[in-house]
Amino acid sequence: MSDEKLPESHGSEGHEVAVHGDPFADPGLPAHEPRRTDIDERAAKRAERQVSLLFIVSMLATIGFIASYVIFDIDKIIYVFPLGHISALNFSLGLTLGVALFCIGAGAVHWARTLMSDHEIPAERHPIEADDEVRADVIEQFRTGAAESGFGRRKMLRNTLIGSMALVPLSGVVLLRDLGPLPEDKLQHTGWIAATPAKPIQLINMNTNEPMKPEDIVTGSLTFAKPEGLEESEEGFQEQIAKDALMIVRIAPEDLKDKTSAGLGFEGILAYSKICTHVGCPISLYEQQTHHALCPCHQSTFDLSDGARVIFGPAGHPLPQLKITTDEKGFLVATGDFAEPVGPSFWERA
Fold first, then answer.
1. Looking at the DSSP assignment, which residues form a beta bridge with residue 115?
2. Greater confidence, 295 or 127?
3. Which of the chain's termini has less CB crowding within 10 Å, N or C?
4. Smallest Cα–Cα separation from 93: which of 64, 60, 56, 73?
5. Please, how many CA atoms are within 13 Å of residue 191, restricted to the half-sphere of its CB?
6. Exposed, middle or buried: residue 348 (CB in 10 Å: 0-12, 13-18, 19+)?
7. How far is 305 from 302, CA to CA, in rounded Å?
């Protein structure tokens, strides 16, 4: 068996194919076959109407998207087979936006396949950097393609495409409404705004939930307070305390550097916002000897003896101070709101 050889014709035939034949030869381009729209103007007009109809449907779907945003309540639930019970707003927004984008894409594809030039043009590979001759050729090809696309000649196609493309971005603009209701002046005020000299609001110790007196505040100590009437059991407590929380410190008069800040306090007792002016983290670290308060999130440091000005870190503003005094019963009270907005900066705050 080892001496048996294959017929010569088998090997020679394969060798001949490898030598004289090129299995990777360029077969060239097939003969161009014109489309029906190339030779029948009625078919071309029909295709033009079909493409324009898709663009018009896209425009109507975009208008439907905006209308759905206004018509449907966010809590409205509907039954859609086979999806089940879903949000009417989400369903309508997804459906209309999907139709708007699909019709633009389908119209563009239909336009390219039926009305734009479809002549195949081979192009050899060339260096990335083109010479002047190639640039001129590309510009000329672009002009030729623009002319052959019929963009300038077929006005109905051009106008409906422009209309659908112009309306679709409105969907994104309308979605900005989901960022929430306009804040109006809510960022400017806190729960302490209800305090007036005639009707002050007591400072309540957040640990004991009892009103605070000056003799309760030890020099060098840090205490946290909230406004009278704000209870943890109430709905919206966390949202409100995020603006109303106070740091109460008592600093010896000789250590106070800012006399204006001292005038807003009572016998060395100062009330500052607990909310860091960087990104709104709660401040809870206090160093007695230096009177520095440290935000644990990004290490912004405030000097409470000097109007809570920033001495280190990314915070851009001092901590707002609340004016306090005592009422006829000797309890610490606030007589007004913060002079500056609490928390991080926003677009209306320099």
1. none
2. 295
3. N
4. 64
5. 22
6. exposed
7. 9
Q: How confident is the model at residue 335 (pLDDT cuts 50, 70, 90)?
A: very high
CB 182 within 8 A of CB 122: no
**CATH 2.102.10.10: which residues of the chain?**
186-334
> Are the CB atoms for 322 and 271 separated by under 8 Å?
yes
- The closest of 257, 249, 172 to 214, measured between CA atoms, is 249
CATH assignment, 186-334? 2.102.10.10
Greatest alpha-carbon span in the chain: 124
Per residue in 1-43, pLDDT (tens digit) is: 445 444 444 444 444 444 456 777 777 778 888 899 989 999 9
Q: Is the dihedral of CA 243, 244, 250, 252 positive or negative?
A: positive
Residue type, 74: I
The contacts of residue 204 (CB under 8 Å, 6+ apart) are 210, 211, 212, 225, 226, 227, 228, 230
Determine phi and psi for 143, rounding to 5 degrees: -65, -40
Cα 253 to Cα 268: distance, rounded to the nearest angstrom: 6
Rounded mean pLDDT of 208-234? 91
Quick check: pTM over 0.90? no
Q: What is the CA radius of gyration of the chain?
A: 38
> How far apart (Å, rounded) are the C-alpha atoms in residues 159 and 56?
10
Q: For the residues of 228-283, what is the DSSP string, one character each? A: TT--TTSTTHHHHHHHH-EEEEE--GGG---HHHHHTSBTTEEEEESB-TTT-PBP
